[in-house]
Amino acid sequence: MQVIRLASETDLTGWRAAARSLRSLGVAPEEALWTVDGAGGDLFAATATGGEAPMPPQAQQGGAPFTVPREFVELADLVVLHRSDERFALLYRMLWRLAREPQLLHIHSDPDVQKARHLAADVSRAAHKMKAFVRFRQVAEGDQTERYVAWFEPAHRVTEMVAPFFVARFATMDFSILTPDACLHWDTKALVVLPGADPADAPTNLQGGEDALEDYWRAYYASIFNPARLKTASMQQHMPKRYWRNLPEARLIPDLIARAETRTAAMVRQPSSIPDRVIRQVTRKLRDGTFDDQQPANLEEVAAMIQACRRCDLWRDATQGVAGEGPSRAKLMLVGEQPGDQEDLAGKPFVGPAGQMLDRALAEAGVPRDQTYVTNAVKHFKHEPRGKRRLHKTPNTGEVTACRWWLDHERRLVKPRVVVALGATAVTSVFGKALPIAGARQTAHQLPDQSQGVVTYHPSYLLRVPDAEAKAKAYAMFVEDLRFAWRLVA
Questions:
Q1: For domain 312-489, is the CATH number 2.60.120.10?
Q2: What is the pLDDT of residues 290-322, one digit of tens each?
Q3: 393-397, long-range: CB within 8 Å, 24+ apart, which pairs?
Q4: Is pTM, for the whole model, over 0.70?
Q5: Distance (Å, rounded) from C-alpha 204 to C-alpha 207?
Q6: How far apart, in Å, are the Cα atoms of 42 and each of 39, 58, 85, 92?
Q7: DSSP secondary structure code for residue 325 in this structure
Q8: Which residues pair with 186 in a beta bridge?
Q9: All structural domains of the chain with their residue ranges
């Protein structure tokens, strides 16, 4: 019996060197015992070896060289990260068999192949979960440096595997990710990997503590939670409870689930936002669908006429048209891009995640939401199906131009003093041309109807900013732009 002691639980290099020597020397899988230094050895090591000294793999030479399929190498890269105690033995058994069965990896019914692919799938799944469920918390440093730390317990040893993902996504942020297997430390210049940490050694606020980012996570999660699409079993499959203790939004889940049925029933009972009587009256008057000879007399007619709009093809795939909403004589008008998935279903503008972000920013800027008129440059949801989801697609110039007819009528009827264009599509619709948002902010632009135009980011942009520091800065600028627009109104 040959005992092979590897340097660590993920010592793939050591395993490859030893496995190459063993196979070249004709050591059968049942004659090799794999263990890891510092891991306590194998329970049956003393009996199995019969007192023989362990074989130093590097000292063993000889045998003919051989090659293995690249697919096996890639499979081994994943399997070695699994917590299964039999992973090294399984890989060597497959390596041994490949000499006589070169097509082994293509025999999907083979027990060894099935087992290896199952272990690899577990590792890939664990890597995905780590990317999805790591939550950073800000910690205090002695030199006042802004640093973010996360504690995570991956199902398998994937910390170093996913390190490039976090470095690329948070390149400008000083962060550390602590796990029982390894710790990642990034200072925006170099990545350092150190041995694993004990939960007791982690900063105190990483275990159920609070920091400034907690409210962001909870507000975002609550805003995207759709009770009508709740599938508890599926949710727990994709967000297992073992990760909940490190997720700030997890405390919301029981209450959101408990209230889902009530909220769904309320959504079903909610009457249409467009009066059926007006829709029928307007539809009878619209003969060709172009509306060129129809001038809506009020906002109610605008909303009804949008339901029968055929000025472009976006109506074909949308649930309904979504007109603006707010006081008929609002002094401030906010113009977004187009309805999103939740707006398309509800028939109201800015009720989804971007709307939640807008509401919070308006409150911080001191702008009363009930005194603003909110609308979009395009009135139908443009999207493409992706499984059961509908993914947003940016309207093209022709669609924006066709729908500007409706925005012009809304502006004519509301007569706002200030029009805020939220994002590039709204800028094109409001100003008739593209403007650089960063360079046009904090400036009052005179519009042909004598109102003043203000340019800022769309709230959905703030939701997409991955870097915590950049997100906070962008949000602060957004709030300041809304405050600037409200000062113009006064």
A1: no
A2: 455 568 889 998 998 898 888 899 998 888 999
A3: 394/337, 394/425, 395/314, 395/337, 395/338, 395/425, 397/428
A4: no
A5: 6
A6: 8, 21, 10, 17
A7: B
A8: 175, 191
A9: 2-128, 134-208, 213-269, 312-489
